[in-house]
Design a protein that fits this description.
Elements: H1 2-13, E1 17-21, E2 27-30, H2 32-38, H3 42-45, H4 56-72, E3 76-83, E4 89-100, E5 106-115, H5 117-139, E6 142-147, E7 153-156, H6 158-163, E8 179-184, E9 190-198
Length: 203
């Protein structure tokens, strides 16, 4: 009895969002961190009541993934935006695993949720930066291609394709006024090979 109490204290004091559910997916426990994160009572989250905190655009796919896990009995990973105590929506990564009895039957589900909002924003910033760079490369008066350290091409500008008659970068032959530079990452490791061929010959 004391050991069960100790476990409950540990779970309730950890900052990780932890929950459990019955075999049918009915949520029957959330720790204190969950209550504080959502600014909710247990009654606001038990059963299927937690779904009202999920962003409407994510709800259908998120609930479907949860139900698929219940049906298959397999661990599940899902991402969705949840409304927090401040009223804003933030991305959570939810991981659930089943607890089985000696016969292999699922008797409980245990899960943890991690706030990944900062990671999602970083991904979006990176995507925007990559899109901006590609826009620049497509509009400057030069034909450009980039390659990974192994030599595999990963970007060819539209102007390059047009200049080569639609044949891509193959068979372009030597170009005496092409500039090539190796781009390194912050550790000094080769990151990419940038090739630039000015459309107008340099004077």
């Amino acid at each position: 009895m004391q050991r069960d109490l100790d476990y409950r204290v540990v779970i309730d004091t950890t900052p990780t969002l932890i929950f459990s559910a019955r075999p049918d997916g009915y949520v029957d426990y959330v720790n204190r961190a969950c209550l504080e994160y959502f600014g909710a009572s247990f009654e606001d989250l038990d059963g299927s009541a937690w779904t009202k905190f999920v962003h409407p655009d994510d709800l259908e796919a998120h609930v479907r993934r949860w139900r698929e896990a219940m049906a298959s009995g397999e661990p599940a990973i899902s991402e969705a935006r949840y409304r927090t105590s401040s009223g804003e929506y933030r991305w959570l990564l939810l991981q659930t695993k089943p607890l089985r009895d000696d016969r292999g039957e699922v008797i409980r589900w245990f899960g943890a949720a991690t706030d990944i909002e900062h990671a999602k924003r970083a991904e979006e910033t990176l995507r925007n930066a990559e899109r901006d760079v590609r826009t620049i490369l497509e509009t400057i008066p030069a034909i450009v291609r980039t390659a990974r350290p192994d030599g595999a091409l990963d970007f060819i500008s539209q102007s390059w394709i047009e200049r080569m008659g639609g044949g891509g970068a193959d068979g372009c032959g030597p170009m005496s006024f092409m500039f090539e530079r190796v781009v390194y990452d912050w550790r000094g490791a080769p990151l990419a090979l940038l090739s630039v061929l000015p459309i107008e010959p340099l004077l």
